[in-house]
Design brief:
This protein is mostly helical. The chain folds into 2 domains: about 90 residues; about 140 residues. The chain is built from 13 helices and 2 strands, in the order αααααββαααααααα. The chain has a two-stranded antiparallel ribbon with strand order 1-2. Helix 6 crosses helix 8. The N and C termini lie close together (about 5 Å).
Length: about 260
């Protein structure tokens, strides 16, 4: 029998490759070599990453296209009224054109105040339990444009804030899948982006017994991974969640992997 760290590393080596990214909104980040553009693309894509993945991709793509090759330049050069006009008529499930425009204008205000989203995240994290909590507090203090609906979750509530923590994984970690770009936030500060797949995996591994995938559950599962690899507790998120997300892999396949390596 091999230990859990060895099992997880084996799964990581096989499945943490770009071949298993598609379909995933993470794909959009690969098109932006400049970090100042990538962080904007990442936050927009993550905020819209709910529902069927095909619809997520279909929704995010035209939003990014309207911002052109440099979302940073677009936001810093475009006035509020022009943003409202450009995205008028946008609708994706619960998100309206008002929510999207307010999100983009809020991002711009953060950039004008801090210089980048990274600077805001790292500054907010100094005074709060998580960098996401700090960012959301600062974002709401600075954002004078209005409400963003549920596009940006509130980490001070009970939500696991899966999409927000997914964005942080993309920007903070750097390996064959996550493009990274941020140096001022450490991977050890990250929290698992908890979805139904990781909830099942966390339960399977004995990291949590909670009955719902909420904020406390995300923290418990993160703590479980932190005992295995404290410097990078979110390392295995992508490779493990391919089981259940990727069209050719399901949770039973993951069960068989663990059972095989434990024989």
């Amino acid at each position: 029998m091999i230990n859990l760290r060895e099992q997880l590393d084996a799964i990581y080596e096989i499945y943490n490759i770009r071949e298993y990214v598609d379909p995933d909104p993470l794909l959009f980040l690969y098109d932006y070599p400049e970090v100042r553009d990538r962080e904007i693309v990442g936050l927009v894509a993550a905020c819209l990453a709910y529902g069927r993945v095909e619809m997520i991709m279909k929704t995010v793509r035209p939003v990014l296209a309207k911002m052109g090759p440099s979302p940073f330049k677009f936001l810093t050069d475009t006035q509020d009224r022009a943003i409202d006009t450009l995205f008028r008529g946008f609708k994706y499930r619960f998100a309206t054109d008002i929510h999207l425009s307010n999100l983009l204008k809020g991002i711009r205000q953060v950039i004008m105040e801090f210089g980048s989203l990274e600077n805001c995240f790292s500054g907010g994290g100094e005074k709060n339990e998580t960098v996401m909590t700090g960012f959301c507090q600062l974002y709401r203090e600075i954002n004078k444009t209005g409400q963003t609906g549920h596009l940006l979750a509130d980490p001070q509530k009970t939500s696991a804030c899966k999409r927000s923590h997914l964005f942080l994984r993309w920007m903070v970690r750097k390996d064959g899948v996550d493009p990274g770009g941020w140096a001022s936030v450490s991977p050890r500060q990250l929290i698992i982006p908890l979805d139904t797949h990781m909830y099942k995996i966390g339960t399977m591994l004995g990291f949590t017994r909670r009955r719902s995938p909420d904020k406390s559950c995300a923290l418990e599962i993160t703590a479980g991974f932190r005992k295995i690899i404290g410097r990078d507790p979110v390392k295995y998120d992508f490779s493990l969640t391919r089981f259940g997300i990727h069209r050719n892999l399901d949770m039973e396949d993951l069960n068989r992997v663990f059972e095989k390596e434990n024989k």
